[in-house]
Amino acid sequence: MSMEPLLEINDLHVRIDGKPILNGVTLRVAPGEVHAIMGPNGSGKSTLAQVLAGREDYEVTAGTVRYRGRDLLAMKPEERAHEGVFLAFQYPIEIPGVNNAYLLKAALNAQRKARGEPQVDAFEFMKLIKAKMALMQIPQDFLQRSVNEGFSGGEKKRNEILQMLMLEPRLALLDETDSGLDVDALKIVAAGVNGLRSPERSMVLVTHYERLLELIVPDYVHVLAGGRIVKTGDRHLARELDERGYDWVQAEAAAS
Amino acid sequence: MTADALARAFAVTGGDPERRAALDRFLSVGFPTPRLERWRYTDLKPIEQAELDFAPAPPDAARLAVVRDLLRERGLPDSEPRLVLVDGHYAESLSTAAAATPLRVSPSAAKRAPSRRSAAQPEEHPLALLNAAFAGGLALTAPRNKTVETPVHLVLAGSGVAGIAAQPRVVIELEAGAKLTLVAHFVDAAAAGYWHNAVIEVVQAERSSLTLYRLQEHDRSAFHTSLLRAELAHDASLTAAYVDLGGRLVRNDVDVALAARGARAEVFGVLLASEGQHVDDHLRIDHLAPETTSEETFRAIVDRKGRGVFNGKVVVHRDAQGVDARQRTDSLLLAEQAEVDTKPELEIYADNVKCSHGATVGELDEEHVFYLRSRGLDEAAARALLTFAFARAVLERVRLPALRELLSDRVRARLPNHEHWENLA
Question: Is B424–A110 a contact, with Cβ atoms under 8 angstroms apart?
Fold first, then answer.
């Protein structure tokens, strides 16, 4: 990794309600790279994604996170979004009373405004979103429906990816985007994500399952256990974890 | 307002005996006080103690001109069918609905109130007695089997003369199979310390359908009390929407009698109460007949030292089998000193019924705030948008898109920080 990293996490310790969750995570993500974070339940995977997006009920007790050379932890969630950080939520929330078109346009324009770019008008916005909706196989009436209200689990996840396609982040954090998806929905989601891969854009995929990583092939696979990255490998590690579980990795880590 | 003062004001009106009887009954019960359960949270003393003119002269040309400007400013031009009351008096010269629609309009609401089987006693609504003693207003009839296609605006305006106690009364009759949408606007031309004490009486014959949207945007100096009393016959349906944004002390009573099989009522509303505002919605639905349905959905947004009150009482009478009654209230408190009192009441005397009620009081969900911030909205914008969404989720029940947007726009304009996100979308 000779290239200047986009994201550099160094010895990150995080607590929630006084309970330690992350106990020294170190990770470098260079532009264009896709990193998968795997690990058993409760290992801190989702916490890592949420802390990076700026969730405030976590307490960072030690360590640093630098993003494009800046102290990420000092930035508000919206500033992180303006700087290109995007979190696809594991459990996307429902917002009755706000329709999808409204939210997306407001989000897009808030980010453009913060970056000093011109806002999109209604016509431009519709052109943009219709193309992306087609890619994600999202029906037309979606735009007028309230955000995620009455959506199935799969629809919510597709909506997260649609938002990502619209906002074109520099660093995409996908928190168990594959959970609750059937094979067809998984393929749609993967196609959406793969379509965004580029030499400038990095991704961190938090996942339980190897099947996502057959469709979105990562450059690195990390195992998070006990709040630490205990093993790093390439895509083949994911296959191995799928076959052998996590115990051997943890045993190996304990022995070293 | 002493009994003497009321009697003196009454003498000016000419002293019609029926009105006199109403006044006497009012004087014998007096203004309701918080000692009464129904008035526990709402103290009318500020109204009782105000010096008010109960018998204002009908509006002159100057006051009518003021209101004409107000109508234009509010987007209610002459081209829209409308009925206008100024300071409680029917203003025929500003009203266009009689010519533009099949409605029969009579400039007198002296017509008798509907007979009622349920009979909440008149004494339960003492302010309606006071209204009956002094009321001006109008009566309108939607003719048999006719659908009035365009919504008719019913404007109850204050012209801005200080200290008027306006007592508008509107009697709405729907003949069998008639369909009508009314949009009632309560507006003031200026800060004038008014009291608007409105009574709307609705009588619906079988299969008739009335939709009544009500937008209350009084000046913040105004007192507002209202009673909507409706009686529905076989398969009649009533939709009533309450959007309360203005006023200083506001009390709305809704009293619906589902008097015959298949009658349906849907009542929903949004109230906003900020510093110096007290808004109280009191509903009573009587299921008097089998297979009648009712649904109530109310939301309150209370900020700073505002106060919101909701009381919804559903009574399912004996033999009213197969009733479906649902009630739901949610309140959003935006500040520590904001207060909401909410109380559902169910009285059920039949055995085969489906009744439900639920009430929540809370703050914005921080998960939701975080979600929006993670998409790039700043915190103030995220909170303002979620606050609006809280109200909008109820306003989505408004079926006509233009009215849905009109009501949403008015709500939005009253919310804190709305400008933070509005210009983004």
Answer: yes
